Every structure is written in C-alpha cells, then in structure tokens.
Design the sequence.
C-alpha cells in the first residue's frame, strides 16, 4: 500500500513539473518584466479637467472633459459667493475664449434647476492655446474672471504597449486555468486507476 501511494505521489509531481515547464505562465511572466519600484500610471478614466478662478465677489469652478481639438465639448460651471460660499443662481455668465491671433469666441452659459450650477457647450476648436475667462453679470454689475490659458490638443492615441499588456494578462489567466484543469484531470485519472489495485491488494492480503 505504501509503495502504491508513493508511486501515485511521484507521478503527480512529475506531471506537475512537465505542465509547469510547458505552461505559457513561465514564458510571459518573465517577458519585459521590471522588478524595480512600481512606476506611476495615468488612468484614462480620469478624463475630467477642473479649472477654478476667484475674484473679489465670485468663486467659479469649471468642469469639462479633456479638451480635444475639433470636437464639441459639454461642461458645467459652478458659481458661488467668494465671501459666503453660497451658490449664485441668478447671474448672467458668458465664457470668453481668445486665440493667439486675438480672435474672441463667446459661449453662452445656461442656468440649470440646481442652485449655482450652469451648463455650457464649447464648439469644435482646432488645436491651439487659448486664453479662458468668464464675464459675470450679477445685479447689473459686470465682472471678468480669468482662468488663464488652456490647450486644445488632439485626442490621445492608445499605445501598442497598453494593448500588449492586456493581451499578456489574458494569456496568463488562460494559462493558469489550463494548468489547474490539467493537474486536476491527471490526479483524477491516477486516483481512479490505482484505487482498484489498492482494493485488490487488500482483499488478497485478507484472503491469505
């Protein structure tokens, strides 16, 4: 009985070693691998740009998706009092874009049902650097608040390195599943084949 058990263990270990050597896990786990410190990564899900500007009377917050060239972009603007931080809903706001050539574009900002929240749509603009400001009219008083400059850039292109990383992860997962399935199947076959032999030996021993 001990010899049969030892033989089963030896065959399972042998099959496991062969499966590990043949598995794509070892091939892909060490390909282009960096064992140094983890590098920071930029998440593509963080696609919201936030800009703030403050004047004597107002504090203004502008949220938009990434400003891509030749693409219409929607956004939200939040207007509050600089002193009390209370939302201001009854203001007339115009967003001002000034190009490097001095050309100005005015964008109307529309109020919403939420206090201090406004909506706007930036029309398609070619790749450029613009000066961004907002003209606010509140109780008949005009005030211009500057956001500084902003860059309109082309849409980012997904790199082949990101695709390769995703494919490698998928292969690693498939390799792990295949390896576990193979080991389980081999263990089942060995157990099924050797169990009748063990029972036969025990019966013969009892008979003798």
Sequence:
């Amino acid at each position: 009985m001990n010899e049969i058990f030892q033989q089963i263990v030896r065959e399972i270990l042998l099959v496991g070693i062969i499966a590990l050597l043949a598995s794509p896990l070892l091939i892909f786990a060490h390909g282009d691998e960096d064992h140094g410190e983890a590098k920071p990564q930029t998440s593509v899900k963080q696609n919201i740009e936030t800009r703030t500007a403050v004047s004597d009377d107002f504090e203004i917050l502008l949220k938009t998706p990434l400003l891509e060239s030749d693409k219409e972009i929607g956004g939200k603007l939040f207007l509050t009092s600089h002193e009390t931080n209370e939302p201001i809903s009854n203001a007339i706001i115009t967003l001002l874009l000034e190009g490097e050539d001095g050309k100005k574009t005015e964008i109307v900002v529309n109020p919403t049902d939420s206090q201090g929240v406004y909506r706007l749509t930036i029309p398609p603009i070619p790749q450029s650097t613009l000066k961004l400001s907002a003209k606010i009219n509140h109780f008949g008083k005009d005030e211009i608040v500057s956001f500084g400059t902003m860059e309109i850039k082309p849409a980012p292109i997904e790199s082949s390195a990101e695709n390769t990383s995703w494919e490698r992860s998928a292969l690693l997962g498939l390799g792990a599943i295949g390896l576990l399935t193979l080991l389980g199947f081999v263990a089942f076959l060995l157990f099924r084949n050797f169990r009748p032999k063990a029972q036969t030996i025990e019966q013969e021993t009892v008979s003798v």
Remarks:
- The CA atoms of residues 197 and 203 lie 10 Å apart.
- The radius of gyration is 34 Å.
- The chain has two domains: 2-30+159-207, 48-152.
- The chain is about 35% helix and 35% strand.
